Amino acid sequence: MATADFITPVCDDPRRYGRVAAANSVSDVFAMGGRVLFALNLCCFPESEAPPEVFSAILEGAAEVIRECGGVLMGGHSVRDVELKFGLSVVGEADPNRLLTNAGARPGQRLILTKPLGSGVILNGFKVGRIGEDELEPTLASLERLNARASELALAHGVTGATDITGFGLVGHTLEVARASGVGVRVRYESLPVYPHFAELVKKGISTGCTDHNKAATAGEFENLAGLGDRDLELFFDPQTSGGLLLAVPPEEAPTLLETLHETGHQAADIGETLPGPPRFEVV
What we know:
By secondary structure, this protein is of the alpha/beta class. Helices cover 38% and strands 24% of the residues.
């Protein structure tokens, strides 16, 4: 399996930015139950007055993450860009008999999400000065966290379908599972894990450039059965950076999987269930 991704800065610490960008880039491998073999840096670095050590720290942070994955960083490619971007091209492998895909969900399963939601609004709130580094820290620590252990636990507890929640938001990526698997999805709003300060930032008018597009792209298959208002619905379409895994797990395995995720430090939650088709996303 092979994947590539890059992101703009998420904080003022270049090393941590490199770590988050790397965690974001390797997530697709873990979403399929795989392991990282090697990676290549994708550097879009501007001509600026930033000292060289800033760019070195970004690369060092990414290299740390690849080592933690058990992979090898084998170089990369750099270009000059007007806006700083960084990420990785990643190659991994998985056992074809134990592969997690977005087509593997079955009706009657529980849905477990392994990280909170709301990072798009949180990161934009930090960029425009509505929250400081202390308020950003809980989200940043989660974004640094690899999905490797959650992937291993998913395989050990009979998960049949999975995806990671990233730029298309919870609804967009969950509907990809629903369509590929031929199932419906019902999610409980009150069960969704949310990063601190998300709600207060939404009240202040903070959003993202992708949120409205994500909402429009899924309008025909999204059913707001809970009667939520626009502020509450923001969470469903907020684009995530280095988001968690969404796992479709047999109901008898769900409590143990959730307990083990909590024991290993994941802010995971059972957020709903899969239903017989047609593909759709219901929020109750």
